[in-house]
C-alpha cells in the first residue's frame, strides 16, 4: 500500500486530494514539521527523508518519492483513467508541469513559506510586495476557464487549491481576484476536496491543542 507522510494543511494536502480523487488507498503518517517527528511513533522524520519536508510518498516497492510536483504526477499516472494528468506526450502535460512549477515556486516558496516561517517585517517585505502580481497570473488564466489545464480537474488544481486556501491565513484576501475566489469555491465543492480539507483541518486543530 502507498504511504503518505504529511502535515495538516501543508502542501502535502494536494497529494491527499490527488489520492482521494484517484480512489487510491494509502496509509497516512502525520508529521510535526517544527519538531521533525513522525507522530505515530515519535521517530525522527529525517530517517524517512533527509529533506525533512512533506510530502513523502512511499511507493509499493518501498522507494520514496519527494517534492509535490513529482508526487502529484506519480499519483496521477497510477490511475490514468481518473484524468488527473494529461497522458505523457500530450502537449497539455507540459502545461500541467508549468502550473505545478508556478504554484510551487512563485506562490509556495516565494510567499507562503516565508510568511509562515519568518516573522520579521524585513524578510517579508519583498514577498508581500510581489504576491499581488503573482496571483494576477492564475487569475487572468482562470477568467474564462474552470480548470488550470484542459477541461477537467487535474493535480495542478489540487496544488493551486491548497495554495489558495493558505493565502487567507497568510493575510491575503483572494476576493480581490474574483476569478480566483470563484475557482476556489468550485474546487471546495468537490466531495474529495471537501473531505480532504475537513480531515486535515480537524487534525490541525488537534495538534494545536495537544500538549507540547
Describe the structure in your own words.
With 212 residues, the chain is an alpha+beta fold. The longest helix is centred in the middle third of the chain and has 27 residues, at 91-117. A hairpin with a 4-residue loop joins strand 3 (37-38) and strand 4. It is globular. The chain folds into 2 domains: 2-83, 3-Layer(aba) Sandwich (Glutaredoxin), CATH 3.40.30.10; 91-192, Glutathione S-transferase Yfyf (Class Pi), Chain A, domain 2 (Up-down Bundle), CATH 1.20.1050. The protein contains 7 helices and 6 strands, in the order βαβββββαααααα. 54% of the residues lie in helices and 10% in strands.
Notable characteristics:
alpha+beta; 212 residues; 2 domains; Glutathione S-transferase Yfyf (Class Pi), Chain A, domain 2; Glutaredoxin
Brief rundown of the structure:
The chain is of the alpha+beta class. The protein is 54% helix and 10% strand.
What percentage of amino acids are in beta strands?
Answer: 5-15%
Please state the average pLDDT score.
93
**Backbone structural class:** alpha+beta
Strand order of the largest sheet: 4-3-2-1-5-6
Element order: H for helix, E for strand: EHEEEEEHHHHHH
Topology, pairings included?
Layout: E1 2-6, H1 13-22, E2 26-32, E3 37-38, E4 43-44, E5 56-58, E6 64-66, H2 68-78, H3 91-117, H4 121-141, H5 155-169, H6 178-188, H7 191-209
Parallel strand pairs: 1-2
Antiparallel strand pairs: 1-5, 2-3, 3-4, 5-6
Helix pairs in contact: 1-2, 1-5, 1-7, 3-4, 3-5, 5-6
